[in-house]
Here is the input.
Amino acid sequence: MAHLHKTSWNGYKLHIDTADCGVPVSAMLSSASVHDSRAAIPLSRMTARRVTNLYDLMDAAYCSAELQEHCRGLGHVPLIDHNRRGGVKEEFDPADAVRYRERSGAERTNARLKDEFGGRYVMVKSAPKVMNHLMFGLLALSADQLMRLRE
Here is the structure.
């Protein structure tokens, strides 16, 4: 009987908290199986120690009463897109809807990390090495974004 060698790969996911200007403020690495909403509370605590922010903008994947209460507990206004989950979609007030549009900056930060700063192809296997690779990318992205703000 031939011996079968199993090959496995542990996937990782980088969760980034981004300022309106596109500069990453906090980041944490998790297993790829961790849902984004589970990383939101520890990431928001990390960010609250680093900067003063007034709003927490998140997409519908983060829609939960627990997360909204956590945001309020930090003194932030939670602007979390409502996930109707089979019910009626709740819309933002007009002023909140305008503010929520700033969340597109976070999507651009994620895209730039992948496309321009080495986040798409990570060729290392352990969590510390993956984190180092991605943090160098975030460092370069942050410097680039800060230089863009100066212009």
